[in-house]
Amino acid sequence: MRSEKEKMLAGELYVATGPEIAADAARASAWMDRFNASVAMSAEEGHALLSEIFAEVGDGARIRPPFHCDYGSNIRLGAGAFLNFGCVVLDVVEVTIGAGTQIGPGVQILTADHPRDPAQRREGLEFGRPVRIGDNVWIGGGAIILPGVTIGDDAIIGAGAVVTRDVAAGATVVGKPARAVAPQG
To answer: Could you tell me which residues are beta bridge partners of residue 156?
Structure first.
């Protein structure tokens, strides 16, 4: 029988309980306490802290505290990726943020989802869908990226946008829900 953590990582229905999930969440909470208390850290110190918990941290990747995540171990940051103050990444499954991507303050990247069936929700079931953000993407402050979304290289996500579906490479999307707009010079 598969553990709840194994089901979670596979994107299957799971209950967010059990010793493995609790231990990972506690580890992430302790890490966030240290990271978020280190506002004056050097770039090297920040990189070292990120490398303690993230699956991958490229050279020059940076996050400005405060930062919040579920586990951290499912996050991959490309070289030079940057997340500004107050970002939240719910990483029950993999979140990939490409090289050179810039993410504004208060952005939420969400992989956790819930069944549409109310009986399953009452049982505490949930599931995850990975989020993939390409290289050189710019995500404006306060944007929300929903579970299962892929954003192509060089895309722009407007401030406050709610991204409910995939975004093509080079596209600009704005609004709630986010819709493509014509490129502006």
So the answer is: 138, 172
Two tokens, residue 170: 């080079």
Q: In the chain, where are the structural domains located? A: 4-181
> How many CB atoms are located within 10 Å of the residue 6 CB?
13
CATH class of 4-181: mainly beta
Residues noted as catalytic:
114
Q: What is the DSSP letter of 64?
A: P
How do residues 17-28 score in pLDDT, each as one tens digit? 888 999 999 999
Q: Which candidate, 21, 37, 31, 23, places its Cα nearest to that of 124?
A: 21
Q: What is the pLDDT of residue 185?
A: 61
Strands 125-128 and 144-145: unpaired
Q: Average pLDDT in the 159-173 region? A: 98
